[in-house]
Design goal:
The complex is a heterotrimer of chains A (307), B (274) and C (289). Chain B is an all-alpha fold. Chain B contains eleven helices and two strands; from the N terminus they run αααββαααααααα. The two termini of chain C are 42 Å apart. Classes of the chains: A alpha/beta (307), B mainly alpha (274), C mainly alpha (289). Chains in contact: A-C, B-C.
């Protein structure tokens, strides 16, 4: 089966700046695909090219088998786009927002109206249908934006930082809704700089930095490949971390010294902690946890994802 | 923020003290500081509008109208006749703009007031601070406009100097009422209604032609409106035609100030303190 | 109501995705501009009262103020038509009508556009749909043209009622001319508004240094040649003056020595077309950069 998105050597330059630097990836239908990386890594630019609103500078890109440069309207008719910043119309009521947006796809008004009701149920906003957009909370606005993106029954739902700025509870409600869409076979393409989000939602992801793909795989495969099973996080006080790390040399598979803590990668964190204490080192706090994508990113780029 | 050094207010149960910490100056300072960093051209541009009107109407239309004979028998050029009217109108426009659009935007979008109100500053400080800023600008514009009049040879009377405080009084009157009205408005669209009240006042209040062209009942209606009093007051001062009826005009604006501030205070108390 | 209890929308069909896209894209390619216009009209409902007041209240106030006041006060004739002197109200009416169309663009093609790009970001939402940037401009302009036509038609009815049109039959073309004047002024403004990324009070400057001077120095209240020559150029550049002069000649005919109507019309068209091209370019640049 042909992939719904296929990029080869995809490049985007703005003057001297190369935002996306020759990346290759494919997304098969029904997959949930993530672009993970820090701000400015080129994720949003890649999303804009897939969304057929920004033309590529070089390389090849096919979305649903079509060239975005020639078939923008056709491709966009099959996409649902959830932008990073909401752009709902505050002059319109909640339900009207869905209907008006559906019209942009050439969908008859009556169809828009019945889909709007279904989607309001899906977004758990039935009782807000007649409210003004400004009356909604941040989480509700996001859900409405997602509902709006589904009005054309898209093949691909594209989400740019879907839960940035939401509180933990609102994020979980949103993830639950997205998970349901995934179960129904909708292809999801999302960018995020949240590790937990990528782990929750993505079947497969690419780690992007400086416009290049650093690694690719499922979250668990990436963790297996680029990190150990467990991590011990030790804090010795900000002026003593480096000194302590020097003494820990060789005790773990890998050591990362961050300004506020030292990370030790190992398969058995508890055992490692004991050996540290035996050495006569006494961290002010210590914690053993499973490795996450955060560690993968640190390993790949030498930088923390959220500064 | 320049408001942090304000002394702690004494909040009592009721009365004005609950709303007013005697610190309108802090707001005024903030506005002035904000102006410094904003587009100067925009701030100064307000000066040009009445000048454009004076040139276009005073000289263009004036060539058809010729000179006017005032009720007292004095003869003046058309430009000299409309110039004080334009000055009063620009005082009205400036004051209304600052007390409606500006204040509304800050109340609803700027979130500026919430910040100010959590410091030791009452809503009335805010109101008076904004109005003082509007007046300060209005005063500068007025001086500029009077200078333009003099340069254009519209021979000002010595009493024209008193036109500056008169303009400030007019602006204060409109700003107080504008502020009161604004505190009741909920949407930007309602703001357009303010324009619809101002436009007829501008056109009918003896700005461009004497009131005598109208039938008597309409004349009385116009005389009931605030702008006419402003136009007459400033016109008397710049032309040097002084008479006791001017005190009525002054009184009209004093009443506007009192009513406007009373409503503003009551409304702000309901909004912020109850 | 939904038949799924979970409320989850139906998943993708098994139809060939490329063929489905080709079919679904056809309608928006043709009618995208219309959907944008639909949305714009719906948004205008929020300030419908303002539109009605601007369309009827404002003309009434001007016509009363000038008809009852200024016209009564000026006792000489200021201008001639093809058949001799015309009344002051007949002279001013076409200018007021044209300025009402231009006035509409001062709102619709300034803050509304800035808001679409920056504050409410509505254009970005449209842009993610099948609609193309050129269609977004087209839809906005079409919606505003309809508003200008309705306003100028209402204005025309009023000036006829005030007896301010000498020949109501040829004069009936005035709303079209006024709307063209509105576009000649408004489309370059639209292009400018679309180019602004940061609000530094630019529109207040346009209001004070472009719109107001044009209103005052475009031969609105007295013939342009009353002005000294060094001020007449404002009128020559002014879409208001050109639209007004056409309107006047439709109402009472051109006096000898007036500019030919064709010249006025050509200037307006050049301004409107230039603005249109620039506005489209700006929207594409901004949305597809």
């Amino acid at each position: 089966m042909t992939p719904v998105i296929a990029a080869r050597g995809l490049t985007k330059t703005f003057g001297d700046l190369t935002a996306v630097d020759g990346i290759d990836f494919e997304v098969p239908a029904g997959e949930s695909f993530g672009l993970l990386g820090p701000n400015g890594a080129g994720k949003s630019t890649t999303m804009r090219m897939i969304g057929a609103v920004s033309s590529r500078s070089a390389g090849d890109l096919r979305v649903l088998g079509l060239d975005p440069d020639a078939h923008g309207p056709e491709i966009r008719s099959q996409l649902g786009v959830v932008p990073q910043e909401d752009n709902l119309d505050p002059e319109l009521k909640v339900r009207e927002n869905l209907i008006v947006y559906g019209r942009y796809f050439g969908i008859p008004r009556a169809t828009c109206a019945s889909r709007a009701d279904e989607l309001l149920t899906f977004a758990q906003l039935e009782d807000k249908a007649r409210n003004k957009v400004d009356d909604l909370s941040g989480g509700m606005k996001r859900r409405l934006t997602i509902a709006r993106a589904l009005i054309n029954e898209p093949r691909i739902l594209m989400l740019d930082e879907p839960t940035t700025g939401l509180d933990p509870q609102a994020r979980h409600v949103l993830w639950d809704r997205l998970f349901r869409l995934k179960e129904r076979g909708t292809t999801l393409v999302l960018t995020t700089h949240y590790m937990d989000e990528a782990e929750q939602l993505c079947d497969r992801l690419v780690v992007v930095d400086h416009g290049r793909i650093m690694a690719e795989g499922s979250p668990s495969a990436l963790i297996r490949q680029y990190a150990s099973r467990e991590v011990a996080e030790l804090r010795f006080g900000s002026d003593r971390n480096a000194e302590a790390a020097a003494r820990l040399e060789g005790m773990a598979e890998r050591i990362e010294v961050l300004p506020d803590r030292v990370l030790l990668y190992t398969d058995d964190g508890e055992a490692l902690l004991e050996r540290v204490t035996d050495l006569g080192l006494h961290p002010t706090t210590s914690l053993v946890r499973r490795s996450s994508l955060e560690d993968v990113f640190l390993r790949l780029t030498g930088r923390s994802l959220i500064e | 923020m320049t408001t942090t050094t304000a002394p702690a207010p004494v909040r009592r149960g009721g009365g004005v003290r609950a709303l007013y910490a005697g610190n309108a100056r802090a707001i005024l300072m903030r506005s002035l500081t904000a102006t410094k960093s904003s587009n100067w051209a925009v701030v100064l541009s307000g000066f040009f509008e009445p000048v454009f009107y004076l040139v276009a109407m005073g000289y263009g239309l004036g060539s058809f109208v010729g000179d006017l004979t005032l009720p007292g028998g004095e003869t003046v050029s058309y430009a000299a006749f409309i110039a004080p009217g334009l000055l009063a109108v620009s005082a009205m426009n400036g004051a209304v703009y600052d007390s409606t659009w500006n204040v509304f935007f800050k109340l609803h979008f700027g979130k500026l007031y919430q910040a100010q109100l959590t410091t030791s500053i009452g809503p009335l400080d805010v109101a008076l601070g904004e109005i003082s800023y509007a007046l300060l600008r209005g005063g500068v514009y007025a001086l500029g406009f009077l200078t333009v009049m003099q340069v254009m040879g519209l021979n000002l009377a010595w009493s024209a100097l008193a036109a500056v405080p008169a303009v400030l009084l007019i602006a204060f009157g409109f700003a107080s009422v504008g502020m009161a009205v604004t505190s009741y408005l909920k949407t930007f669209q309602q703001m357009d209604w303010v324009t619809f009240v101002m436009l007829p006042m501008f056109l009918f209040s003896a700005t461009f032609y004497p009131l005598s062209v109208y039938p008597e009942p309409i004349q009385w209606l116009i005389k009931a409106m605030p702008l006419w009093h402003g136009v007459e007051l400033v016109r008397g001062l710049t032309l040097g035609v002084l008479d006791p009826s001017m005190l009525v005009h002054v009184g009209y604006y004093v009443v506007m100030v009192v009513i406007g501030l009373t409503f503003t205070t009551t409304r702000l108390r309901a909004l912020f303190l109850d | 109501m939904s038949t799924h209890t979970s409320g989850t929308p139906a998943g993708p069909t098994t139809e060939d995705p490329t063929a489905r896209a080709m079919t679904a894209g056809a309608l928006p390619r043709r009618l995208g501009w219309w959907y944008v216009a639909e949305h714009t009209w719906r948004a205008m409902r929020a300030y419908a009262w303002t539109i009605v007041m601007e369309g009827i209240g404002q003309p009434l106030v001007y016509l009363l103020g000038i008809g009852l006041g200024l016209a009564a006060f000026i006792d000489v004739s200021v201008a001639d038509g093809a058949n001799g002197p015309v009344t002051y109200l007949e002279f001013v009416a076409p200018a007021l009508l044209a300025s009402s169309a231009i006035g509409i663009t001062m709102g619709e093609f300034t803050y509304v556009v800035m808001s679409g790009f920056k504050w409410r970001r509505l254009y970005w939402g449209m842009n993610a749909s099948p609609v193309q940037p050129q269609q977004i401009v087209g839809g906005i302009v079409f919606a505003v043209v309809v508003r200008m036509l309705l306003t100028t038609i209402a204005y025309y009815v009023l000036i006829v009622a005030f007896g301010a049109v000498v020949d109501p039959w040829t004069g009936a073309l005035m709303p079209l001319v006024g709307t063209l004047g509105g576009l000649a002024f408004g489309l370059p403004l639209l292009a400018y508004a679309a180019s602004i990324t940061e609000d530094k009070g630019q529109f207040a400057m346009v209001q004070r240094f472009v719109f107001t001077p044009l209103f005052l120095f475009s031969g609105t209240f007295y013939p342009l040649d009353t002005m000294p020559v060094w001020l007449q150029w404002i009128g020559w550049l002014s879409p208001l003056w050109h639209a007004t002069e056409i309107g006047r000649s439709l109402s009472y005919g051109s006096p000898p020595g007036a500019w030919p109507v064709g010249v006025h019309l050509a200037i307006l068209l050049v301004m409107a077309v230039t603005g249109w091209v620039l506005a489209r370019r700006m929207f594409v640049k901004r949305l597809r950069g």
